[in-house]
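The material for today's practical consists of a large collection of protein records. Getting from the letters to the tokens is the skill we practise here. To make this concrete, we reproduce a full record directly below:
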Amino acid sequence: MTVLTKEIRDMLMDVSTATLTTAMFKRGFRNIFFQGPHRLNPGKNMVGEAYTLRYIPAREDLDMLESFADRDNPQRKGVEECPEGAVFVIDSRQDASAASAGGILVTRLQTKGVAGIVTDGGFRDTPEISELNMPAYHTRPSAPTNLISHHAVAINDPVACGGVSVFPGDVIVGDGEGVVCIPAHLVEQIATESAEMTVFEDFVLEMVQEGVSTFGLYPPTDPGTAEKFASWRQRKNR
């Protein structure tokens, strides 16, 4: 997996998915925001390398309760092997008719120090999951066991989640708006640029709150904007 340095992680903890999508759009990336998943529990950003689980449609002769006794069951094995600091990404084919995971497995991931979990399906035990400290994203609550609709087939393979291609080691960032995927080889430059964009956008927001027009300010086409921003940044120690 890609080494996500503390410096890069700290920068990504303070930027929004909106800012990240803009930085990626500048490089030609249009499809990095997961369609559907939303956060159950408010809190700080979710940042970590992707560790993936892939489901295919369930089959009646394979997906029975007895299958959970198999230590090689990819769902259970994936939960136990997911590294500390990673984000557990589940490809549920955008199908929330049965749960992708439930409160016990999500709690297990939290105790292992996993950075978060996201599925384009649904979770069961959502009242309990919403009380956890670990960020969790899904499309809607789904009480039925995963075996009704999902057959866990692979861990740490490339997957699709919310219509986005996710490769193991890609960096996943989630905030109160949603989740984005950043290709591993771009994460350092995207994090650095987005951190700078965040400082400028904070300046712009403060100016707008004071009644300043956005013309010439955002984007900064007025030559005086750069000077005002530099002065503001020094004053704010940003």
